[in-house]
Amino acid sequence: MNYKIPRGTYDIMPKDSARWQHVIDTFRLVAQRFGYEEITTPIFELAGLFERSSGESSDVVQKEMYRFADQKGRTFALRPEGTAGVVRAYVEKSLDRLGGRSKYYYIGPMFRYDRPQAGRYRQFYQYGIEFIGSNHPYYDAEVIALEMQFLAELGLKNVSLEINSVGCAQCSLDYDEALRAYYQPHLAELCPDCQNRFEVRPRRLLDCKVSFCQSLRKDAPSQLDYLDQDCKEHFSEVQNYLDQMGVKYRVNPAIVRGLDYYTNTAFELIVDALGAQDSIAGGGRYNGLISQLGGKDTPAVGFAGGFERLLLALELEGIAGYEPVNPTIYVIGIGEETRLMALEYITKLRQDGIYVDYNPDKSSFKAQMKAADASKARYALIIGEDELASKLPTLKDLESSQQRSVDYQQLLDILQ
Ligand code: HAM
């Protein structure tokens, strides 16, 4: 065949869909329990929205965005993440003017052009949470607790939560200056990306994977030493709430998020066994983003996780896939004349919510019985000459092999 799937993408085949569905359903249930409601935004937006929100210096904007021009020459981009679209919708519907709390969750594909590897795709699926409307540290802890509850319900054990505070805009400026002073003597030896980061976003130097740049990290100044009083208190309150909610965490001042909109709390969930792509979820506070995108100054906090990495992590812990659902009943019609009666039963049962399988390509009784067994249905409904005459089909229990004549109501009662 001449057509291959695009690099960095994959098909979710039916045999894997049950696992995906289980994880998605669990996320929905947990999010709803915490009072979050689903929001769905477009898969593409004006490229400027992402450039403005993720930040010009972020990898996402510099190298990873799928940009395209439409027929009128406007530049759009496939969304690399979900927060910008949610904030755009929030401001566009004037919810910033109403004030109050907005609690959103979303599920959907995101797109980043990066070198594909285990756990890193060009189209990947995120689940996310955005809380908009309060700077209260309780909400930082709430979104984290929600994620921990979701992972616990899936049965995931080997995961650690790392938290940090990147401070407000003013603390960031002070910290950036401290970092520049520290890296200045090594500037010429830094990798080209870091030389650029030095200028535009020095904290991203801490996140570099190049070994020389990494070797400088351990003695670099810590953001936590550059927090002002309010930011220090906020971070300490977040930790108090986490403690009181029984959430275990480690403070790691090296947590630098790859997107530029974060203020104060930043966090990641790490599964060591995943290797290079070990972050299964990440997020934090973004108090400046809503006003930066033209809305009224409104604080917010959220996170997103990647389904692919989560499924890999579950697999590594031997948390098995979920079996596909088998049909409840397989309908067998012996002879052409029984077809009408068979179809009546098939149609009525499906309308009454029963999963029915049927295969008109199989004609002999033997072939149909074999197909019924192969379908793993619990029952077979057999319609032959006698059943046609009495208008009562035969129900066969494929586990016990017992069979009996039934009318429609009796059949439905048994199947339900
Ligand atoms: P992010 O850290 O860029 O944050 O992505 C969140 C998660 O998406 C990562 O932890 C990872 O599990 C998954 N992910 C990211 N890129 C890929 C990829 N190429 N392949 C597979 N999985 C990937 C955000 O996107 C922010 N919007 C999170 C947020 C929400 N912050 C506040 N609110």
CATH level 1 class label of the largest domain: Alpha Beta
What CATH architecture of the largest domain would you give? 2-Layer Sandwich
Hey, roughly how much beta strand do the residues contain? Answer: 15-25%
Secondary-structure-based class equals alpha+beta
Total count of domains: 2
Give the neighbour order of strands across the main sheet.
1-5-6-11-10-9-7-8
What does this structure look like?
The model has no long low-confidence stretch (mean pLDDT 95). Strand 9 and strand 10 form a beta hairpin. Helix 1 packs antiparallel against helix 6 (137-154) and helix 6 (137-154) runs parallel beside helix 10 (229-244). The chain has helices at residues 14-33, 47-54, 59-64, 83-92, 95-98, 137-154, 169-183, 192-200, 211-215, 229-244, 289-292, 307-316, 339-351, 365-374, 385-390, 408-415; strands spanning 37-38, 44-46, 67-69, 75-78, 102-111, 123-132, 160-165, 250-251, 265-270, 279-285, 300-306, 329-333, 356-357, 379-383, 394-397, 403-405. The longest helix has 20 residues, at 14-33. It starts with 13 loop residues before the first helix and ends with a helix. With 416 residues, the protein is of the alpha+beta class. The protein has two domains: 14-168 and 228-316, Bira Bifunctional Protein, Domain 2 (BirA Bifunctional Protein, domain 2); 329-415, Rossmann fold (3-Layer(aba) Sandwich), CATH 3.40.50. The chain binds histidyl-adenosine monophosphate. Histidyl-adenosine monophosphate is lined by residues 81-83, 112, 114, 119-121, 124, 126, 128, 130, 258-259, 279-284, 286, 302-306, 308-309.
